[in-house]
Amino acid sequence: MEKLTTRKQYDEVKAHVERLITEATAKGMLEPEMDNAYTQEIAQLSKQMAQYEDEYLNILPLRQKSPLIASIEEYFYSHGLRQKDVAKLLGVNESQFSQIMSGRRRISMSFAKRLHSRLGINADLILEYA
């Protein structure tokens, strides 16, 4: 596997992968579990691109949502509420709630108690992920 070392090489490979994906999709050759020349080449080139991204582009990996945040979101989706409605229900302003949901603000003990009492979030989940 050839190592990409310049942005120009990376951009060329990326453009080539995009062309391959378009062509393979049009031919029905990019379905899940398929193993063919398209999927093999795309996989090989994608590994080269990922290695370049790790070494040179300093791209942060996607953060996985904590089970606690997912439970809070599940609550407002299942009850047809918006984020601002849940913030009000929990006694915080929208900005604070948004920061909590994005992981930029820690969950206080009083907020954790309200999660349990007002939303019915499992206490063990709160203790583990707050």
Structural key phrases:
mainly alpha; 130 residues; 7 helices
Q: How is the topology of this model organized?
A:
Blueprint: H1 7-26, H2 37-57, H3 67-78, H4 83-89, H5 94-102, H6 109-119, H7 123-129
Helix pairs in contact: 1-2, 4-5
Give a quick rundown of the structure.
The protein is mainly alpha-helical and 130 residues long. The protein contains 7 helices and no strands.
Helix-residue proportion: 55-70%
What's the rounded overall pLDDT mean? Answer: 90
**Number of β-strand runs:** 0
Beta content comes to: under 5%
Poorly predicted sequence stretches spanning 5 or more consecutive residues? none
Q: Tell me, what's the shape?
A: elongated
Using only C-alpha atoms, the radius of gyration works out to: 22 Å
Main sheet characteristics: none
Structural class: mainly alpha
Number of helices: 7
How widely separated are the two ends? Answer: 43 Å
